[in-house]
Design goal:
17% strand; seven-stranded parallel β-sheet; single chain; 7 helices; 252 residues; Rossmann fold; alpha/beta
Length: 252
């Protein structure tokens, strides 16, 4: 029996990353994903992937720690070689991240550096380190935010880094075209997860979000994973260098 294609997701133990992992497994893909510190949650996701008939692997990683990337990919290739007989992955999804809600006038240099390290520098160099492991014809999906298109006070640092990743993604798509690797952006709108302290779960904020969204509700993690899985399917092979906003029609 042929080996399933395999995706590598950063930040796959909870929230959007968890649903991406499960959606990919549901679509017949094996998944290796990173987690920051919660091994118990990561093990639960592995179990859910395996319940869907696919292989799941969890590895610890802090995506701010650029110097750890070489040893991380050493662990990835070692595990894949032992488990699958191949060191290659087919899909890379850069999802890991944290939020920051601070007015522009009060944002500190340390906060800006943190956003830069997680949402831009980490994505840049993690993707660079992944290239030798990524099969020709593979896919790269970077996770941005609706906040790179519309503006809400308090997200200037976070959203600016997401805007930078959107530009980077177009360059990656152009430069990796000769290897038939595509690169696209998925930009979620407001999603009711624990991200950024879980403020999108608060009733007052949900009313505001629902009122600003054409479909009249806040997003859920389950709204995102299927889109990522689609971009990893054969049907999405001609989509390249694009930004796909998944927000239910927010701030139209």
């Amino acid at each position: 029996m042929a080996t399933s294609k395999i995706a590598l997701i950063t930040g796959g133990s909870r929230g959007l990353g968890r649903d991406m992992a499960l959606s990919l497994a549901q679509n017949g893909k094996d998944v290796i994903f990173t987690y920051h510190s919660n091994r118990t949650a990561a093990d639960e996701v592995v179990a859910e992937i395996e319940q869907r008939g696919q292989k799941g692997y969890a590895l610890q990683l802090d995506t701010r720690d650029i110097k750890s990337f070489s040893s991380f990919f050493g662990s990835v290739t070692e595990k894949l070689k032992a488990e699958r007989g191949s060191e290659k992955i087919d899909f890379l999804i850069n999802n890991a991240g944290t939020g920051l809600y601070a007015p522009f006038s009060e944002t500190t240099e340390e906060q800006l550096d943190e956003m830069f390290a997680i949402h831009y520098k980490g994505v840049f160099f993690f993707t660079q380190k992944a290239l030798p492991c990524l099969n020709n014809g593979g896919r790269i999906i970077n996770i941005s935010s609706g906040l790179a298109r519309f503006s809400f006070p308090g997200s200037s640092a976070y959203a600016s880094m997401k805007g930078a990743v959107e530009v980077l993604t177009r360059y990656i798509a152009k430069e990796l075209g000769e290897r038939k690797i595509t690169a696209n952006i998925v930009a979620p709108g407001a999603i009711a997860t624990d991200f950024g302290g879980g403020s999108n779960k608060e009733e007052d904020k949900q009313k505001i979000i629902s009122g600003a969204t054409a479909l009249g509700r806040v997003g859920e993690a389950e709204d995102i994973g299927g889109v990522v899985a689609f971009l990893c399917s054969e049907d999405a092979g001609w989509i390249n260098g694009q930004r796909i906003e998944v927000s239910g029609g927010m701030m139209l």
